[in-house]
Design brief:
GO terms for molecular function: ATP binding; molybdenum ion binding; UMP kinase activity. With about 270 residues, the protein is α/β, with parallel strands linked by helices. The chain has one domain: Acetylglutamate kinase-like (Carbamate kinase), CATH 3.40.1160.10. Helices cover about 35% and strands about 15% of the residues. An 8-stranded mixed β-sheet has the order 3-4-2-1-5-9-10-8, with helices on both faces. Strands 6-7 form a two-stranded antiparallel sheet. Helix 2 links the parallel strand 1 and strand 2. The longest helix is centred in the middle third of the chain and has 22 residues.
Length: about 270
């Protein structure tokens, strides 16, 4: 019986799961497609759902910043995602189906934001067209994409319950990593990460800078970002920190882009 045919390469005969293989191939620098990119994720629940009083000034701020900085705007879903998840869970929908339903909501917000940013060349990007981004930026466009990762029906099972673990915060981080972005900024309705929810406990303290390990050790009941991000960030090659700012306060996004002290930084 003839032996197995092998193409000559450095992974010849590998199972791709052997532990020592990872170390042997480490040290090869990953291509950064857009190293000066700022991925800015706009929360649906924290910003878009507030309507014109919050959204329109935010759009103007982002539009003006885009004239000087390369940006990818990522949208969340907000209250409508919570509604569809509530219905879906009540009806026993699998996690993968819930992920499909949630993606449709954040996509609606992406369409809205794209139109609001049309004055600054806002342009809709679909997940499958993400690699068109460098060309779009060279053309002076301001790309907008929805943040739900395209796992869809292949969404990973949640550790607890049925809610999809990879949602729009996580999607923004994954896009920032694959594009080799400079910044991954989450725009929320609070000043950053607090020791407790400041809307419930006004005495909660703002955490300005913290490592992933320190944050996981705190084992907090609630967080201002998706927990899945804390699992992924230590394994990232290009993105080493996440910035959280209050989008209800004008100028915060620009300060985060410029590296000024604002909000919270969560780092490896």
């Amino acid at each position: 019986m003839a032996g197995r045919h092998e193409i000559q390469n450095k992974l010849k005969g590998e199972t791709l799961v052997r532990k020592s293989l990872t170390g042997r191939r480490a040290g090869i620098e990953s291509l950064r497609l857009v190293p000066d990119l700022n991925v800015v994720k706009i929360g649906g629940h924290g910003t878009i759902d507030y309507g014109r009083e919050v959204v329109l000034p935010l759009m103007e701020e982002i539009g003006e910043l885009s004239l000087e900085h390369k940006m990818l705007i990522v949208t969340g879903g907000g209250v409508r995602v919570r509604h569809i998840l509530d219905i879906g869970i009540d009806l026993g929908m699998p996690t993968g189906v819930l992920a499909e339903l949630a993606a449709k909501i954040s996509e609606q917000n992406a369409e809205i934001v794209t139109l609001l940013l049309s004055k600054w060349h806002g342009s809709r990007v679909k997940p499958g067209d993400l690699l068109d981004l460098p060309t779009m930026l060279h053309l002076g466009l301001l790309p907008v994409i929805h943040g739900t990762p395209p796992y869809g029906l292949y969404e990973h099972p949640a550790e607890y319950g049925l809610i999809p673990p990879h949602r729009t915060d996580t999607g923004a981080l994954l896009m920032a990593e694959v594009l080799g972005a400079k910044n991954c900024i989450l725009v929320k309705n609070v000043d950053g990460l607090y020791t407790e929810d400041p809307r419930i406990n006004p005495k909660a303290e703002l955490i300005e800078d913290i490592t992933v390990a320190e944050l996981l050790k705190l084992d907090m009941e609630d967080l201002v970002l998706e927990r899945k991000m804390l699992n992924l960030l230590p394994d990232m090659i290009n993105v080493k920190e996440i910035k959280i700012v209050n989008g209800h306060k004008r100028g915060n996004i620009g300060r985060a882009i410029r590296g000024e002290k604002v909000g919270t930084v969560i780092r490896v």
